[in-house]
Specification:
The complex is a heterodimer of chains A (316) and B (426). Chain A has a two-stranded antiparallel sheet with strand order 1-2. Chain A is an all-alpha fold and 316 residues long. Chain A is built from 14 helices and two strands, in the order ααααββαααααααααα. The longest helix of chain A is centred in the N-terminal third of the chain and has 32 residues. Chain A has a domain of 217 residues. Helices cover 74% and strands 3% of the residues of chain A. Chain B is mostly helical. The longest helix of chain B has 37 residues. The radius of gyration of chain B is 24 Å and the shape is globular. Chain B starts with a helix and ends with a helix. The chains are: A mainly alpha (316), B mainly alpha (426).
Amino acid sequence: MFQLILFSILNGLVYGMLLFMLSSGLTLIFGMMGVLNFAHASFYMLGAYIAFTLGLRLGFWPALVIAPIVVGLLGAVIERQGLRRVHRFGHIAELIFTFGVAIVIEEIVQLVWGRPAKSYQVPAALDFPLFRAFGSSFPAYKAFMLVISIAIFAFIFVILTRTRAGLIIQASLTHPQMVAMLGHNVPRVFMVVFGIGSALAGVAGVIAGPVLGTFPGMAQVLGSIVFVVVVIGGLGSLTGAFVASLLIGIVQTFAVAMDVSVGGMLTAVGVPASAGGALHDLWKVTIAQVAPILPYVLLVLTLILRPTGLFGTRET
Amino acid sequence: MSAPAATRSLALPGVARAVLARRVGLGLAAAVLLLILPQLVPTGTALAIMNQMGIAVIFALSFNMLLGQGGMLSFGHAVYFGIGGFIAAHVLNMAGRGTLWLPVPLLPLVGGLGGLAFAVLFGSFSTRRAGTVFSMISLGVAELMAASSLIFDRFFGGEEGITTNRSKAPLLLGLEFTRDRQVYYLIAFWLFVAALAMYAFSRTPVGRMANAVRDNPERAEFVGYSQHRVRFVSFCAAGFFAGIAGGLFAINYEILTAENMGLNASGGVLLMAYIGGIGYFVGPIIGAVIFTFLQSMLSDYTGMWLLYLGILFLITVLFVPMGLAGILMLHAPAWRSRRIGRLVVPYLITGALGLVAVIGAIGLLELLHFVAVSEGAGATKRLFWTTIAPRTLMPWLGFAALAVLGALGVRWTAPRAAAAFAEVTK
């Protein structure tokens, strides 16, 4: 039991911080431009694939630096050439545009790398168990993921709160017109933030690719969860994204580890559960099976009960 | 504004009668076209594609009740299509076993009611908000249903899905549905009825209020309408018609899997409606026909058909947000003034050059795909009815030349075509 709790918390932290790397960029972009970027997870996927290809030639470490830069530049180009153009048609048009970008990126990935999953491996230098406890071992690579994501969190925090550029970004979040009046090029700030957000998603892809798998569906798998995170945390709120990332990460990891069925639980509480009838499937449902649904239930509940999310200050 | 009111009230009956006559004429023409289509293109493949198109048209029209007429962008409209289909398939199975009496022609109605029931359930909370929140909830609901389909094995049939058999159900008026052609007429019938009903809905007061709520919810509230209620009614109607399409799908393919209500299916209907043009009633019809046609044609030749459709979609979003129907409508004045003939030559030239550029681009993409992915599959590839060797320099240069020359040509001739258009519509 103790082993389960310890490892679930550790894995939940790793997964949650990974979610934060994606959700921080997404929520910043939303906060500034009001655009919910459907293609955000596609940049994550591109990061993994580009790092995989670069890794074959240059090794993991150069790829860790180069791939996010490539992805970030691509994000900036898409913002400049595409998103800015549809901006005048309103938020729905922007959402539709990013949806189209997500489709095209997924198809391009299949065009260039093919449909089967790539065997993107953990770098040899990190391929050892970090420590053993209660008969299970914790891989060093996961610790590395945790360190990288915490470093990035600290980096964003310092940039946003302690530098001049961060101040301009924060001001553009709430008062874009005033910032423009003061002589700053607000559209360029948007483009840079979009690029940085995409690059962060790229970093997440580079480090998550070996663990969560590098395949054409990886964007869809994580993309919806990241949406859930930013909505629950409150759109535009970095703190909210942080808390919600960890919450979803830990809740999901715990749920997956629990193999208790609804019928079993009811029986334990004293309610006799019949195994037949139309509800047959419902009794057999285990918590582990419910795990993929949980985030979406939370999402729908949040949107109904508290549209501002946990830490959001405004409604979408 | 007040002065012409008198003349308008005098002119109105005549104008209204003319408009009505034109609409009835259009409806009759559509009915006749639906009836004779199987005679015009009598092959089995064409029939199968037309069946698919009919279902897609109903689905896309129901989607546009949300996006085009109600301003609600749903990422989960396939949920109602799929639910309707699954319920119809189960009912058809029951009818086949003799548990209940229901002939195949009425089955789409069952699907529709199933879609409606779930639209009432999910719509009750998701239509409270418009815009991005609505989109997010619809996405959440879609993911919820996708995840649930893995749990409720009995209803959704797990990986294999639910199979059914339309030939076992009781007959109505002796109508059998063993051949594709018979199914075609069933789909055509329901397509006609559903399209008519959806058009009629858009003309009812609540359909009009859906437009008003889309454009300015605050003012609609001040007039005394609840924006939530108006959106809810549209949402339920859209769910109903999506369910009808799902029921027809169950009859036509006799199988349903969870994929039919997944995110890709929901995305597909968005592509159809948008490419066709969401601002016009005929837009989704055009979009669904073209999308289905391209999908079935392209998928024979290339594994990347969705890439081409996705690029077409992006181009539409970026450059022609009014869609194909919008482009057609732009030419209505020229058509009415009988000057459209002057556009034929400039359009043909630009179109031919554009086609050259497109062929070049497609060739390059296919070459890239071949070299990047299918490594051990031999040295040659058939492309555009010729055999080429992708690993040599020549085809790359050739397609690149086509793409560049075509694009340059379009840049040169497009302003002339635009000028001709401006001249004609002046």
